[in-house]
Structure formats: structure tokens, C-alpha cells
Amino acid sequence: MTLYGEKPPAADDRPTVQVTAVTWPGDEPDPASAPAPGRPGGRSRRGRLLLAGGLTAALLAAGVGVGAYAYAGDVPRGTIVLGTELGGRSRADAARELRSALERRAATLNAPVKVTVGEKATEVKPADVGLAVDVDATVAAAAKADAHAVSRLVGSRTVDPVVTVDVARLDTVLRGALGKQGREMTLPAIIFTGTTPKPVYPKPSLSLDPPRSAEVVKQGWLSGRPVTVPLVEKAPATSRAEVDTLVEELAKPAVAAPVTLTTDKGSVTIPPTAIARSLRFSADEAGKLTPRVDVKRLRSALGDTLAKIEVEPKDAGLTIAGGKPKVVPGRAGQQVDSAALARDLLAVLPRTDGRTVTGRLTAAQPELTEAKLAELGIKERVSTFTTKFPGGLSSPRSQNIIQAAKDVDGTIVKPGETFSLNGHTGERGYDQGYQDAPVIVDGKLVPGVGGGVSQFTTTLFNASYYAGMEDVEHKPHSYWFDRYPAVIESTIFWPDLDFKFRNTSPHGVLIDTSYTANTITVSMWSTKIYDSVKTEYGPRRNITKPQTIHLEPGPKCIESNGIDGFTQDAFRVIRKDGKVIKREKFSWTYQAEPKYVCGPAPS
């Protein structure tokens, strides 16, 4: 078109466009239908190109428009979290919108979650266990776009919120509700009574699975529905059949015959009794039972036998002289390589013949040198405790008390270490110098090897108690005996009941024992870190009277006068720098000990 008043441009002034010819499939010219020169015909090739380009451009433009609409903002359109549309927003705006939605639901989200654990119903307060929606993590999950943009125009998607919970705190709350409904795993074991192996068969635990509990509580919290937390049974890794196999294929043949240990300096015989004391079957937390030879126990069981081939290293130690600790120097020695001996001895124990191992003698340094001992800071007595026993030193019960005292005397417990009385003495049998004396079994006094050691245990417990040590494991007697302080006393029984304390002081602790004809004393030496450790008692309550029970006369019948039962609390009060820094409650309920009479009831 030419505008009025303008001249058409000259041919040379017209823009020139170079077009590359493109042939589309099926577009080859048909000679029969080709128009004559100068005659109008079908749509020109240039026109078809322009039309194709226009359609392509239109489709591309439509696609770009769909994508721009669907992905406007950081969160794709149609994205819903907790019933709230977050689509088309930036992350910051989506986070603000989600927080507003959570505030609107605050009453519901802060309400206690009704939970059933086993057969017991309880409530869990969200704030107590850290139940919360992680807003930032939830928005990040919502911002992950779908692969098909066009679907966002006509659909929607729901994104679950990211919920957090303190699993450990939740587990503590749920275990409070669980109470005694669950059961601890019985770990498998094989223990020796003399040279007779006795199996302890595994039993599965029934308890909570913390991660699984957390998942069901999180789901219930969001839905507002009551939750049933499952109890999970977990079987030990070693089965009953595998325990029996270990007994038959290792434990029994191990003590069927002696083993000969040969060295460059001669040979010694390891008798079955020493093998039984040193062959240990230890289960890990999963209940996997693994046999091993404890060479330290083996050396103790062999006693002076090894002196013909070894020179035992001696740790530096302490003795009390003139009311002060005095260093006893240690010395180096020469011993059979412990690791190799443990490995090689374990390998021959299942055999019926060829029971010989070769030991290699190596230099052995003491574990505790004088220099290390000096660093422990053992310089003053920090506690002492004495109990009285009847019968004089000649009675079997008194001899057991003194034997335990000798076994423990001079022991040094390093900072952070846990002392175990069972672990230190091992099984207290005839071979270890213990005798038959009365013990409590099923509520009755009966003869048993090691009877009376509970009195030493109580004395040791109180010495550690008044030294401010951490009580790790102890159990008072079923009945109260007036020779012990109520509540803060402890029994012991191999291997089920133990006494343990942990040295929580930054200094070492020396256990010093002494005795007279009717007393046993345990003192702890270290460096004082507390002003005082004292006990405050609550009143006795729930007092019960003993009944009279008549037993068949005989050597196993032991009479008793009967003792009242009661419940009482004791509080350990620890002061430092003039202030009470710890007040610990100890409680116990004593049964009324029956009055046992050896003979028939009067008619």
C-alpha cells in the first residue's frame, strides 16, 4: 500500500530477504497440477513456510504461557499442605502462609495425643516431646515441582508436612506408661558350676521400638486420632538350639581333659578347673553369644603354676602406712603372649586329643606404673564404714567375709571406671577359699557356698556411698537385719545379683579393707571433692508382722526369730562449698521375715 503523497520506493531500495528452500515430505511439485507460468494456482511454498512457522510459534507461546502460569513463584500451583494452598508463592510467602495456618490450628496441635501402650492409656503433650511441624523443610518439599507442568492447570497435589519429634524424650514418656507390661531380653549365657557347664537360655524382649513409636505418634498428632503404639518382640541373636550346640561342642569337651602349655622354659598343665574359670561366654546387646578365653582369669586360676615359666609383672600399688598412702613400686616381667594364648587355647578346647598349645614368652610391662599412680591423686581417706558380725573369725560365715575383703583389698579404681564385685572376685566357690554358710534362697535361710559375703558387700556399698561414688547397681535384702543400715545396704549372689559403683571423681580411688574378730571395715582413699555426705531417713511405714512357719527338722533347716517388714526412704545429701549439690532418694520395702521353727507345729 502506498500512502497518499508518497512515492513508491525504487526497486533497489526494497529490503532483500534470503530464504533457504525447505522441502517438506509430500510437498514435491506435481507436474499435472502445476499452474501455467503467470497463472494463479495453489498456495505458494513461501506461504506454506510462513503458515507452518506461525503455528509453531503459537504452540511455543502457548507452552511458555502454561509453564509460566503453573510455576509462578517457588511453589507450583495447586500445591496444598494441611488444607492450605501454597502454590504460586515464593518460599518466604509460603512459609508465612503455612505458619498462619498452623496458628489457626494451634488449639488442635497443642492438645495432648491420646496414646495406648500395651493395655495402658495415657496422653502425650506435644510440647513435652518436641512434636512440631518443620515449616522450612515442609516448604522445601512443597517447592519440588511435578514433571508435567500442564497438569497443574487442572489438578492439585497434597504435600505432607515434615513433622519433627524428640525420639528419646518420647521414648522416655512412653516407657513410663509401659511400666511392667514389657520384659527385658534374657541374654543367653553358659556358666560353669565347678566344671559343669549350665546353659542360660535366651528369651525375647517385649518393648518399644523408638523409631516406630515416633512414626505412629506423629501420624496420630496430625490426624487428631488416638494412637496405639505397638510393642515389638525382639529375639536374641543366639537361639536356644545354638546355646545347646555350644554346650555340647565346646563347653563340655573344654573341661573333659587338661591342656598342656609348652614354652621355651618348660611346660605346665592347665587343669579343667582353670579352663572352666577362664572360658567365658559373653553376649552382646543383640544377644549374640561368643566364647573367649579370659587369660587374666586363667592366670589367677593357675596361681603359682605359671611361676615356673613366667615372671609376672607387678603393678605399682599403694599401702596405708602411718595413716597415709605409701607407694609400692611395680616391676616388669616376662609372660606368655596373652592374645596368642587366648586364641590357641580356644582352638584346642573342642578336641578330644592334641590338646597342646605352644606359648611364646614376651616382655610384660605393668599396667600401672609409679608415674601413672602419682597422677591419680590418691592422698587422703574420703570415707570409711564398719559393720559387725557375730561368731568370731572361726565361723564359716566370718571366713567368707574376710576372704572377700582380702580379694578386694588394694584395688584401685581409676576415674570413670566402674567397679563390679562379681567381676572382681569371679565365682566365689570352694576353690576360691569360700565355705558353706547360711544364705537366703526363696525367703528361707539355707546353707550355701559364700554365705555372709553380703555383709562385706553392704560395707563396701556404704564406703562408696559416703565417698560420693555413683551407685550403678545394688539390691537390698528381702529382710532387714539390724547389723545393716536400713535401705542403704546390699546383697549379692553369683551370677545374678551384683554390686557396682562408678568412680565419678577426677581422682583415683583406693579400696582399703581391714578386719577384727567381729568387725569388717572398708575405707576409700582419694582426694576429697565434697564437704560432706550424709543420710537423712524418712519414717518407717507399712509395718507388717512375721508369721510362724514350721519346717522339717534336719541339717538344712535353719531357725530364725522373725523380723518385722516395713517401707522406708533414705536420702543421700551431698554438700560442696557450703551448699547442697545433690539429694538422692533411696527407697525399699522389706518383707516380714517369718519365724522359722524346725519341728512340727504344736497340736
UniProtKB/TrEMBL annotation:
The chain crosses the membrane at residues 49-72. Residues 1-45 are annotated as: Disordered. Residues 250-357 form the YoaR-like putative peptidoglycan binding domain. Keywords: Membrane, Transmembrane, Transmembrane helix. It comes from the Bacteria. Pfam families: PG_binding_4, VanW. The keyword Endoplasmic reticulum does not apply. The keyword Ribosomal protein does not apply. PANTHER family: EXPORTED PROTEIN, EXPORTED PROTEIN-RELATED. This is VanW family protein.
